[in-house]
Amino acid sequence: MVHNTRWGILATGGIAKAFVKDLLKNPQTRNASDITHTVTAVASSSSSSRAQEFITDLSLPGMPKAYGSYEELVNDPNVDVIYIATPHSHHYQNARLALEAGKHVLCEKAFTVNAAQAKILVDIARKKNLFLMEAVWTRFFPLSVQVRDIIRKGGEIGEVVRVLADLSIANADGFDVSSRMVNLDLAGGALLDLGIYSLTWVFQTLYHTLPPSQRKPPSTIQSSMTKYPATGADEDTTILLTFPTTTPADDRRASHGIATTAFAVHSHPRGTPSIRIQGTKGEIQIFGPAFRPVKYRVVPVDEKKEIREWECEFPDGGHGMYWEADEVARCLRDGKLESERMPWEESIVIMEVMDEVRRQNGLVYPEKIESVEYPVAL
Amino acid sequence: MVHNTRWGILATGGIAKAFVKDLLKNPQTRNASDITHTVTAVASSSSSSRAQEFITDLSLPGMPKAYGSYEELVNDPNVDVIYIATPHSHHYQNARLALEAGKHVLCEKAFTVNAAQAKILVDIARKKNLFLMEAVWTRFFPLSVQVRDIIRKGGEIGEVVRVLADLSIANADGFDVSSRMVNLDLAGGALLDLGIYSLTWVFQTLYHTLPPSQRKPPSTIQSSMTKYPATGADEDTTILLTFPTTTPADDRRASHGIATTAFAVHSHPRGTPSIRIQGTKGEIQIFGPAFRPVKYRVVPVDEKKEIREWECEFPDGGHGMYWEADEVARCLRDGKLESERMPWEESIVIMEVMDEVRRQNGLVYPEKIESVEYPVAL
């Protein structure tokens, strides 16, 4: 039986557009014949006409409702799950609004502004028996799944000792002070916007590849930040994490994860790998931006062994967000509250790392967006 | 006029052999027509026959003296400069022996075991008007000179914001406990033996490229270490340095240097760059091991600009150590006490970084090799 998921889209910006475009792709083209997706409602906080414009622009089928408030959206009985596509400053308030209304939630990354907010959302989801997931779409790419499998099996690159993961965007001219990328009122800066992907690669390789019972948070978190002169947001953040074991689990050794992110340089100019997963027998190199990897290459140290490449296909010309949408649909179908591939606990550990990195470097967002109070008008 | 330098070789191991082989190459093949080198004496601490064997094996011309003690070597009036090729545990004692005897010194890296020892050697050299230099041969490669020039000029890769430099050797099986690589009595471990090259690349790109008056030690030093189970030496060390400016000097921004070193993984498998010097307009990638780079590649971010490659030639089949020997010869000829390309102050700052990294990770060598006392029999 094919299970259909009815989506409500909260916010109408660029990321919402990209997500919905992927939702519209035929799941069969990616061999997903067990699930389908429908957009049943879209909301803009500014006006229903803006939501209607979004529906019209994307030619959404089935006459979805257009709302001018998020409250109306989360109370629509024809919506199963709310996709939250606001800036991360707003995630806690928006996700909580949806959960309190009894709706399942897929919430864009970074999950929240701090770990305290993340924990409250998780508690509410657990109590109310609702699905909740941070929308780290990259984790659901077939490429990511394969890379994690290679690491878990251990044979091809051996024991993983070090991971270098970068997302940097070569915008040396900087951003306008009003840009959400550098606006502290929107929790702007490299860390939450780009660094989450560097951390995703460190965590999905050095942490998530261990059996859940053996996953341990970093034993040390060290970091350094350069601030964007005009606003004080971080523009260049480097994080050194030490994990107490290597993968496959070996607690004689620690492993190092180096997560970097910067506005001013480029993580992968002209085909340079943006991520290197270094094991005792070889390494996996990831090509393309950390958020949308397009190829991996397994490079054995032993020169007699062949270098192996695998390119990621994006069926039906998709951006790659449908794989996470499919995961959400299957979790809902199966009555799961969380995805094993992006579990609550791991989202919280990553938020705790970001909290600590900000603490070490004196990066504080305005009180109302750091607050766990609800509701707070932002 | 051609200036000849008369070398005394202190110790007869692999690195001494490599150095002397390069000394024997005809300087004209590398367009050095202003200087020549002669080996006038060789000493082994164990026996003169071992020194003689070294002379015979390498067919050293001019009948150099063979000594069975370092004391005899440093007192030979036909020697201008002593090349110290012992393990780094012994550098302080050996270099001091030579300086006290009034000889100029070229001392293998790591310079000493700690910064306190380095400072004393520098003080003695200054007082006695003697030349002294840490033998970081890589700095004198035409490739290194070119790379520093590109950074200084700033045009090709813009403002340098981040440098990733690694030397790791893919010896996952580990070393025998008696190996000097892991023997704490010889200050063994990744940091002093391999990490010095990672730090060399960070320093020669982010620090040395500034005018001397603007060079500032790292504003933060953060690090993490994995210990070799059998001996407690470090087998995997990662260092995150923050410098207060970028290069060319811009103190609105900081820069990050990430120096890594490990036994278990490979820094540059199958042609992967081992060093990335990341600027706002592009990056310089260094190929080959960090100690003996063979190629650099300038990768502009702008896809319309060509990628530029330059390969290092090693005239007369040399290993690449003659360029530092030529620098020593020219400094001696010109009456200089230190080389501008590897100044005392920079060797000391790097030793201070290594001291701090060891302090952060509880890595202590035996008291007699950490000692600044002299003489101490090791």
From TrEMBL, chains A, B:
It catalyses: D-xylose + NADP(+) = D-xylono-1,5-lactone + NADPH + H(+). Residues 146-284 form the GFO/IDH/MocA-like oxidoreductase domain. Its EC number is 1.1.1.179. InterPro entries: Gfo/Idh/MocA-like_OxRdtase_N, Gfo/Idh/MocA_domain, GFO_IDH_MocA-like_dom, NAD(P)-bd_dom_sf. Signal peptide: none annotated. Keywords: Oxidoreductase. Residues 6-133 form the Gfo/Idh/MocA-like oxidoreductase N-terminal domain. GO terms for molecular function: D-xylose 1-dehydrogenase (NADP+) activity; nucleotide binding. It is an enzyme of class 1 (oxidoreductase). Belongs to the Gfo/Idh/MocA family. This is D-xylose 1-dehydrogenase (NADP(+), D-xylono-1,5-lactone-forming). It comes from Talaromyces stipitatus (strain ATCC 10500 / CBS 375.48 / QM 6759 / NRRL 1006) (Penicillium stipitatum).
